Write a sequence for this structure.
C-alpha cells in the first residue's frame, strides 16, 4: 500500500537524520509519489507528483503547512469568502493541491476542484488522533514526511506524558463555554482535549445548537467551567447571573480561560492539551 511504503521510507529517513547533519530530502527526492491518503473527505486524495502551489483553507491547514516549512509553496486566499467568490479566488491561485479544514463547504471544494483540477485534502480535525493523522497525511502529500512525523510524534509524546502525570487523579466534569453559553460536544477537538486532560464534557457527545439550558447546567453542576478567550465569559459575569452563580465551579473559582488560538487542529494541540489539563487538574502541576 502506498501510504505504508511511504511511512516506511520516512522512518528510514528519520533514522538517517539522527546520525549526522544530513538534510531532509524534499519534493521529488523522496520516492513517495504517486501517493494516496484518506482524509476527512469522502474521496481519497491522490497526487502523482509533489505539489508546487498549495492553497490552505482554514487556520489548521495554514499552521501545519507553515510548521512543515512550506511557506514558499503556500498561496493564501481569503477563506472567509463562501460560494462562487471563494471558488473564483482559488481558481485564480492556480493550485495543484487544496488543503481544507473539516468545516469547509463540500460544494465549494467540489467546485474548486472542478475549476482548477487540483487535488483536495480535508484535514481530520475533530480529535487529537485525527490531527496527528492529518499532519502525517499533509507531510506525505507535500513531500515532507520526516518533518511531519516529528510534529505528530511530539503531540503523541505530550499525550503519553500527560496521561502518566494524571494517573490516579479523579475525572473532573467540565462545561465548555464558546460564547453565550453555547458549547461543544465530546466529539469535537475541544471536547477531546477535555477528555484526554482527565475531564468529562457534561454536554455529552452532540449537544443541540444554541445556548445550553442554564437549568440543565445547574443540574449537572460541573467541577470546572472552561471558557474560550473570545467567548466574552468572565468569572465575574457568571457570579452576577442568578443561576450560574450557584454552580460549584463558580463559587469555588474553578474557572479557566483557554486562548482561542489553541483550539486549532494543528501542531499546537499538544500545548492546548497541557493548558486544559492545568485548568482541570491544577494540583497535578
Amino acid at each position: 500500500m502506498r501510504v505504508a511504503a511511504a511511512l516506511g521510507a520516512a522512518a528510514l529517513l528519520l533514522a538517517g537524520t539522527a546520525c549526522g547533519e544530513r538534510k531532509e530530502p524534499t519534493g521529488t527526492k523522496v520516492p513517495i509519489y504517486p501517493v494516496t491518503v484518506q482524509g476527512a473527505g469522502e474521496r481519497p486524495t491522490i497526487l502523482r507528483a509533489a505539489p508546487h502551489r498549495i492553497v490552505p483553507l482554514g487556520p489548521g491547514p495554514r499552521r501545519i503547512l507553515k510548521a512543515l516549512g512550506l511557506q514558499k509553496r503556500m498561496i493564501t486566499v481569503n477563506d472567509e469568502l463562501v460560494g462562487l467568490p471563494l471558488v473564483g479566488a482559488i481558481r485564480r491561485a492556480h493550485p495543484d493541491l487544496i488543503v481544507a479544514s473539516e468545516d469547509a463547504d463540500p460544494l465549494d471544494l467540489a467546485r474548486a476542484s472542478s475549476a482548477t483540477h487540483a487535488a483536495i485534502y480535508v484535514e481530520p480535525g475533530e480529535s487529537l488522533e485525527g490531527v496527528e493523522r492529518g499532519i502525517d497525511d499533509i507531510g506525505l502529500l507535500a513531500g515532507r514526511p520526516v518533518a511531519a512525523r516529528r510534529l505528530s510524534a511530539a503531540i503523541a509524546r505530550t499525550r503519553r506524558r500527560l496521561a502518566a502525570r494524571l494517573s490516579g487523579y479523579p475525572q473532573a466534569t467540565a462545561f465548555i463555554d464558546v460564547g453565550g453559553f453555547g458549547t461543544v460536544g465530546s466529539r469535537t477537538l475541544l471536547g477531546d482535549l477535555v477528555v484526554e486532560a482527565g475531564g468529562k464534557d457534561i454536554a455529552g457527545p452532540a449537544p443541540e445548537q444554541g445556548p445550553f439550558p442554564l437549568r440543565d447546567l445547574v443540574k449537572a453542576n460541573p467541577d470546572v467551567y472552561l471558557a474560550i478567550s473570545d467567548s466574552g465569559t468572565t468569572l465575574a459575569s457568571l457570579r452576577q447571573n442568578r443561576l450560574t452563580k450557584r454552580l460549584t465551579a463558580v463559587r469555588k473559582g474553578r474557572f479557566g480561560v483557554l486562548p482561542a488560538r489553541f483550539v486549532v487542529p494543528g501542531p499546537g494541540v499538544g500545548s492546548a492539551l497541557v493548558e486544559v489539563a492545568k485548568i482541570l487538574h491544577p494540583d497535578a502541576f
